[in-house]
Amino acid sequence: MPSYQELLAQKNELDKRIEQARHAEAKEALATVKQLISTFGFTAQQVFPWKPEEKKRVEAKYYDPESGATWTGRGKPPKWIEGKNRDLYTIKQTDNPFPVE
C-alpha cells in the first residue's frame, strides 16, 4: 500500500495533468466558437444576450387632481404647483406596504 506522501505526490501530478488538459481543451473550444461566430456572423448580443439595467424610478410625491399630473419633488417645480402650498398636493404615503381596503 502506498504511503500518504506518495499519494499526495500522485494527487499533485494528477492535478497538474488535469489543468493542462483543461487548458488545451478550453483553447480548442474557444477556437471552435470563434470560427462559428465568424462563419454565421453572430453578434455579441446573440451569443451572450443581456438586458440593459432599467433606470430606477422615483415615486411621485405630489399629485394634481385637476390634470392628473404628478411630480417627484425633484428638479424645477411644474407650473401647476409653482407658488402654491405643496401640502395640498402631497400624496399620502402609508407605512404599511399592504394596506387593507
TrEMBL record:
Span of domain DNA-binding protein H-NS-like C-terminal: 52-91
InterPro entries: H-NS_C_dom
Transmembrane segments: none
SMART domains: HNS (SM00528)
Gene3D superfamilies on file: 4.10.430.30
Superkingdom of the organism of origin: Bacteria
Protein name: H-NS family nucleoid-associated regulatory protein
Gene source species: Comamonas terrae
Lineage, uppermost ranks: Bacteria, Pseudomonadati, Pseudomonadota, Betaproteobacteria, Burkholderiales
